[in-house]
Amino acid sequence: MTEPFIESEMLGATRWTSAAICDLVDENKGSIDPRIYTDEQLYQLELERIFGRAWLCVAHEAQIPNAGDFFSTYMGEDPVLVVRQVDMSVKVLLNQCRHRGMKLCRADLGNAKVFSCSYHGWSYAINGDLIRVPREEEGYKNKLIKSDWGAIEVAAVELYHGLIFATWDPQAPSLKTYLGDAAYYLDTFLSRHDGGTEIIGGVTKWVVKANWKFAAEQFASDMYHAPLSHLSATLAAMPEGTSVSKAEWKGTGYHVRTHQGGHGTGFFSAPTEAAQMENIQILFGWMGEDASKYYYTQAAENLRQRRGDAPLVINGAHMTIFPNLSFLPAIQTLRVWQPRGPNEIEVWAVTIVDKAAPQAAKEQWRLGNIRTFSAGGVFEQDDGENWVMIQDVLRGYRARKTALNTSMGQGFAKPHEHYPGIVGDVFSEEAARGLYSHWAKMLTTDKWATLYD
Amino acid sequence: MTDIVMTATVVPDSQVTPELQYRVEQFLYLESRLLDDRKFRLWYDMLDDDLRYTMPIRQNRLRREQHLEYSGAVEAQFFDETKKSIDMRIRRLETGFAWAEDPPSRTRHLVTNVTIFHVCNEKIQLSAYFHVYRSRLERQIEHFVGQRTDCLKITGDSYSLLAREIRLDQSTLMTNSLSFFF
């Protein structure tokens, strides 16, 4: 019996079967088929089955402190408004007028009493209710049932240490279940200190002409690229004459694939005081003295008291929450990779800091991120170069037929006594394999239960 | 610096002689040439030790919130540099491992509409429009258009760049690497 082609809600029958999609990411061989980065039908399936279902980070609470404050963002390619309500709860609404589909609000952020469509004037309350329709009497003869035509709302919103997550799927598991093992690491990043986190004003946005999975995978899994891709930045960010070995994170390097969900992280945990002293110097070089001191003393001590478990002061960490939320603890950049077709990403990045951090440390993190991890940052510039070039190479027929190697550390990762997830050496692609396997699972199954087997 | 631009009159300061205008323009042209010739160290020497070099982000705001269009001094920026951090950026280029600029970009800095609006205390305040053209590798082409508001310090016969605020006419930045200077 031949396997049926996967039906896309939008495209109808695709030319992909479940088996064909699963073959694209072969865990046993340790290879991926580069068409995952280029195929238009797979991209449309991603919008439906990944971005249309997953928990996506849409904002930080600090971006909308007051009633009526809104932040305009995207879930996949769907524009949404994240709006603070009068009762201080948060709603996430599709930024689309129900009459003819015009974008309800075209500002990036601000404060609104109503969202009034600029096309014909349908107006919505900040909770999404349709409250005013021009010519309701003359045109609609008062027969329009406005309560049926409110703005579309997401299925669920959850807050997590200040981050706001939303999903379109009423069947989606709770955010806690969705995060699974990743929650431990997310907590380490966002809940080091009482009072939580805040955002340094403004979102930097830039375009990278590459598939979103290059970015998501790298932040989930790829410590491997750092020593070479970022060699120039590593050297330049340290005092002149610093040797390469002094600029490398010290300690035992760990790499984590979450048991489920496709999330991943990697970091160095310094087992000795001496190693940690060297790490302090690195963060000093990259961000500044106050930021480094706060991170390694006050924040570390607080975290130890709050958690009291494993050596939690993690160094040089990278992480992705599937599908497109990534961050670097200690550097304090947090970004969403907004997909824009198979060949383009918009990066939306913010600097996130502990509220409790001294002002001087916050300012160093602000400046440090501008200079290291942002469009003009000395580290980030070289990431874009890699991803854009790969995407360019993949225009080629032979290039798209050529399997890529994802075998590093295969078979060596296992559960760890302290760290949740499947843990291996920091130089591994276990999390990449996890991310791509989860990607294939989400595309080929419409039941959440089977994603968490 | 923003406020000064806002209150600039169309009548130039009486001290703005054709000669001053000429000398200032030549300074800006020299900067452009050095940047386009990739002589970053020579350009670096034109910077004042107390340099502040910024590029705010620019947000789409409703007209009633126009005053919030640009990010503030302690908010996110695309650049917020001192002479020391510019040195770090040039040192990166000099390592031989700066892949986003190796092979290097071809840039052309066009500078126009140079308006001096204030001269006092050994300082010259001016604004200029720019069009930075950048071509990379085989066929990547990017254009950056905007306004620079500069403060030059008069140092003997010449000037040094004391402050530059770069206002780019883009909201979402249409490049993956700001690995060059404005």
The separation of the N and C termini of chain B measures: 17 Å
Computed CA radius of gyration of chain A, to the nearest angstrom: 23 Å
CATH class of chain B: Alpha Beta
Low-confidence spans of chain B: pLDDT under 50, at least 5 residues? 1-8
How would you sum up this structure in a few lines?
The complex is a heterodimer of chains A (453) and B (182). Chain A is of the alpha+beta class and 453 residues long.
Detailed description of the structure:
The complex is a heterodimer of chains A (453) and B (182). Chain A is an alpha+beta fold and 453 residues long. Chain A has two domains: 56-159, Rieske [2Fe-2S] iron-sulphur domain (Rieske Iron-sulfur Protein, 3-layer Sandwich), CATH 2.102.10; 180-451, Alpha-Beta Complex (Naphthalene 1,2-dioxygenase Alpha Subunit, Chain A, domain 1), CATH 3.90.380. Chain A has 14 helices and 25 strands. Chain A has helices spanning 18-24, 40-50, 175-179, 182-190, 212-221, 226-229, 231-237, 273-286, 289-307, 359-371, 380-393, 397-401, 430-444, 448-451; strands at 5-8, 12-17, 25-26, 31-32, 56-60, 69-75, 78-84, 90-94, 109-111, 114-116, 123-125, 130-132, 156-160, 163-167, 197-199, 204-208, 252-257, 264-269, 314-321, 325-328, 333-339, 345-354, 404-405, 414-415, 422-425. In chain A, strands 15, 16, 17, 18, 19, 20, 21, 22, 24 and 25 form a ten-stranded antiparallel sheet that branches. In chain A, strands 8-7-6-9 form a four-stranded antiparallel sheet, with no helix packed on it. In chain A, a hairpin with a 3-residue loop joins strand 19 (314-321) and strand 20. In chain A, helix 5 (212-221) crosses helix 13 and helix 9 (289-307) crosses helix 10. The longest helix of chain A is centred in the middle third of the chain and has 19 residues, at 289-307. Chain A is globular and about 80 Å long. The relative contact order of chain A is 0.16. With 182 residues, chain B is of the alpha+beta class. Chain B has one domain (2-168): Nuclear Transport Factor 2, Chain: A (Roll), CATH 3.10.450.50. Helix content of chain B is 23%, strand content 39%. Chain B has four helices and six strands. Chain B has a six-stranded mixed sheet with strand order 2-1-6-5-4-3. In chain B, strand 3 and strand 4 form a beta hairpin. Chain B is globular. The interface between A and B is large, with 47 and 40 residues.
